[in-house]
Specification:
A alpha/beta (291); B alpha/beta (409); C mainly alpha (266); B: 409 residues; alpha/beta; Immunoglobulin-like; Rossmann fold; 3 domains; C: mainly alpha
Amino acid sequence: MAGFVEKLLGLDRRWIFLLVLLSVATPIVFPIGLPVTTSGPTRSAFEYIEALTPGDVVWISFDYGPSSAPENDPMAEAVMRQCFLKKVRVVVTALYPLGALGIANNVLAKLNAEFPGLRYGEDYVNLGYKDGAAAVMRRLGEDISGAFPTDANGRPIGELPLMRDVPDIRHVKVIVTVATGTIGEWWITQVRAQIGTPVIIGPTAVSAPKYYAYLNAGQLVGILGGMKGAAEYEKLLASRHPELAGFYRTTHTFTATKGMDGQTVIHTVILVFILVGNLAYMKSRMKRRGA
Amino acid sequence: MRTGALGHVLARRMLPAAPLIASLLLAIPPRASARAPETAVPPGPELPAPTEFAAKDRPGDTGNAILVTWKIPPALPPDARIQIRRAEPPAYDWKDIATVEPGAQRYVDSSAKDKEVYRYEIRLVSASTPDTMGIAGASGPPLVSDPVASHDNWFRLERTNSLIANILFICLILGSISAARSGKKIFIRRIAGLNAIDEAIGRATEIGKKVLYVPGIQSMDDIQTIASVAILSHVAGATARYGADLDVPNRDPLTFAAAREVVRAAYLSEGRPDLFREEMVNYITYDQFAYTAAVAARMVRERPAAIFLVGYFFAESLILAETGQSTGAIQIAGQADPTQLPFFVATCDYTLIGEELYAASAYLTREPVLLGSMRGQDIAKGIIMLLGFLGIVAASIGIPWSAEIFKTR
Amino acid sequence: MNLEFGRVALVVLFALIPIAGIVMGLQASALRTRIPILIGVFAGVIPILSLYIPKQFLSGQTGMSPRLDQWLIIVYAFALLLGVVNVLQNSLRRIRRREKGWPFSAVLLTGLFVTGGLGVYGAVSRQGIGYRPDGSATPFQWITDHFFQPLQSTIFALLAFFMASAAFRAFRARNTEASILLLAGGLVMAGRVPLLEFLAAPFPPLQPAAAGASQALGKLTEWIMDTPNGAAQSGIIIGAALGAASMAIRVILGIERGYLGVGKGE
């Protein structure tokens, strides 16, 4: 028994890696379809956008790169689906330097296929990437055309009907930053705190705990924390909009709800690791004390 | 020719007076002037007029913006909008500039140019409400503003609270520094992570392996990186003294340039320039994960005895720290941002948490000036805690302005 | 010639004074260390002033503060060049001396020249480095799509493996504080996912109870994240912000010099 405990405590990391691989890969191949429960920060984000009226403008900023796309993509897609369904207009930007614009283009292409009636320049615009995120945000408080003179295709934004109604960021109902790293936090400190436009954040799960401090301080409307937050949003969307319920049930593309199966299994496995590790640790401590 | 030249001279002489003339012209009521702007004749007030309408230079800005404000009358149709028009020089024709929601009660015209005199007109419009003729598309009576010109300002009034707080904070720091200079003894608590620096480098020297110092992945405009480079200076001094090998891989080019100078200077000041090699401080790549892969590979291949992960880290923190841990190196980490701290605490031997990172220079050098600034910072923290407590009390007993005075715009 | 105040002031502060300092520093060595500190003071004070003074010469689009931001980008570009030269030097040295792991350096240089070359080709041929108008990818974009993005995702995905191994090894109930942390961490991990439903899936009679317990666990998780976690995060954020502000003041006033390698403080 003692030998087993020692062995367990000194377990080769590669066994753990193998178990993690199997735990994540199996539910992707064989989906389980586990239920998702919703939390307050996601509900408040959802209800805020749900309460907008047709013609209102939502600013969606792609502030993440390909590395965290599986976690962040479903958030951006879900919020945009909600906006387009409610005829809320969308302004898209990308402030993360490595690959954010490519991701924004891909998501827009996907949404265009889902909502064939969308008109560029009227229902949505893509302002593209701009370097120097914090300086860009400060500039948005003065005038958007100063920060983004043209859209992603080089067209002057004065030619886009949607942008004529949004001279500065104050005219936007809410900013949704789907973020990794610090750019999401800058939307709060540079825009929410100094200009006043409400902000919803969709951070990666690892960054989410930090944003509860801002949520409690009333500087955030809501948080979509990691893949769980995205799955909750998808559930809320499906329950409120029957046309999307069908979509989320039948789509073959990756959704956060599907990803939650893998996340549930891996959480269970890690909890078992922690439990086993602690049992072995206590056993060895008792043995040391006995000696 | 002569007339043309005279005209040119006259025009040039008249130019400075142009805004004044324009303002005089515009001050005359529209219908009474031949040059007055043409306001469309309203068919009748089917919609009410907004009240308290004003157009003025937006206060506290860098110019080129006019702030238009109004109050809305009650019971407006849901699709009511405020149509904003502007008369501008030299023709002074009215031009539509925006149609906005009435509830906004303000509009910033950021297309205005400084020193040019404008007038603004607003009116309520509603596409669904019938006018007096029964045709949909009613509009309310227009309101015309006084002449207005924008200019840049000397002070952002809305940031007065922040200015006062900053001045107080600077005074506290400078006062504490001055107290420290006059010989006042300042206590600084033990920081285990900083005490362990010499131990870690000593161990590397004993077993003949290198010390790996990773200064985070941010640039020198981040204060955590500056703190990290200051700690690097001490680490490099210690490796120079002990004769241990040092390796500083960089992701950011500016941090790379600063780190190289700091390490070179540390070896010089320890009297061991012979031990300094240019390749000790090296550049890898600008990409976050390529950098992570390269540093992790270096840890596995070269098995450094001591690893410092001090600076601003993101998702790479756990990959680096866990790889370092697997090599058996003694690890010291430091980060002020809370996001990655749990990973460092779980995988490193010592972690500088939050402001401990910024206290490192003071702690390591025991310079009275630096210690004094630490004391000032602690007093400021005490004041903030007190204000926080008072804020809780004020909010609980229902004083609405208590939170407002701390808001910064 | 444009002699607006902000422009002239920048030239004086960041060109004439440093040049004069360097010239005088040839005689007085103390000046040589003071000039970089002085430049740091100017570069630090200007953005702070622009926070409160919105005059055009200081904070306008072409004012001193935004212009300093632009200068930073220019300095950055030169520093990046320095970095690339350093990569070339180190890699070529490793290959020349056949140091351990030299083939990796060869792969690195190949990647650098091929990708960089395609980027330059895209700029010279005017087809750019993104997608062509017909939607097809330029060679540079193709490399981004098929090498860069998957590699980024791969390295990021390693986190899952390292998290599991770190949790197994380090998450131990060593003392009271660690035990509280362990309990809170375990509850949050369980409450963030439908773990109880997953465990009850093979036992249908238990499923309603599992769903109810999962709801309660979710609420507990929310409370942990919202209240103790939110409070702790606020504390660390405020403390670290004060530390950063204090450090910034020390740097701007020239008290903190460790980052310059010119002394430990004055």
